[in-house]
Design a protein that fits this description.
It contains 8 helices and 12 strands. By secondary structure, it is α/β, with parallel strands linked by helices. Strand 11 and strand 12 form a beta hairpin. About 3% of the residues have low confidence.
Length: 233
């Protein structure tokens, strides 16, 4: 079955043009002009991926993302304006997988959508047993690739696809420093350009989730000017 993309933006010109491009690529597209209608639609009938504008009537993209993340790990891409750097970072900290700055190239948006859907589909295949997987155990951390679950000291940590892949990339080689380019490749795939601050925001969100369960969590270390590493236990 065709994959479904939800587009949420109060600019009808964007909805029309992007919808046409995605439909030509074989996707099913559902459009919404405000956050409230999108929330109702997506809770009743989930999509495979959502593209959200930040500034919308009735419910903005930030609040919509928060409500979606309370129930779903569905991949989300934010659309932001050039003067909304704070909103970009906040969106990533709330759990967005990626962001694109307006005005944007539809080709770039299509590439980002394809990359996120490929990663998400790989996770689904692993959880259904289509792809062989297993457990990654590092001290108090357990990552189950087949179920896309993360356990820290016996407690579940809810991670998005991007966050899970980042933790996995670091935990695979404890003590080894991963620079931001390596983490971008691990989380997004090669040949996808993502700003360095995107990785920094994802790492901050991952730490926040772990510290909500364990305020002494300090396994992901920052080496300023270099990158990150997972501290050996």
């Amino acid at each position: 079955m065709p994959q479904t993309i939800a587009l949420v933006d109060d600019d009808r010109n964007i909805l029309t043009s992007v919808s046409m491009t995605l439909e030509q690529e074989g996707y099913q597209v559902r459009t919404y002009t405000d956050g409230e209608s999108a929330l109702q639609g997506l809770m009743g009938k989930p999509a495979d991926l959502a593209v959200l504008d930040i500034k919308m009537p009735r419910m903005d993209g930030m609040e919509l993302l928060q409500r979606l993340r309370a129930r779903s790990a569905m991949p989300v891409i934010f659309l932001t304006s050039k003067d909304e750097e704070v909103d970009e970072l906040m969106g990533l900290r709330l759990g967005a997988d990626d962001y694109i700055t307006k005005p944007f190239s539809q080709r770039l948006l299509l590439e980002r959508i394809r990359a996120l859907l490929r990663r998400n589909e790989a996770m689904k295949q692993e959880s259904s047993g289509v792809v062989a997987g297993g457990l990654l155990v590092r001290g108090d951390l357990t990552l189950d690739e087949t179920k896309h679950t993360c356990i820290w000291k016996g407690k579940p940590i809810q991670l998005t696809v991007t966050e899970f892949l980042l933790v996995k990339a670091l935990a695979l080689r404890p003590g080894l420093v991963k620079n931001r380019d390596q983490l971008i490749d691990a989380a997004y795939g090669e040949n996808i350009y993502v700003d360095d601050r995107t990785i920094d925001s994802h790492v901050k969100r991952v730490r926040k989730k772990f510290r909500a369960q364990d305020d002494e969590f300090a396994q992901i270390e920052t080496l300023y000017g270099i990158g990150y590493r997972y501290k050996e236990q």
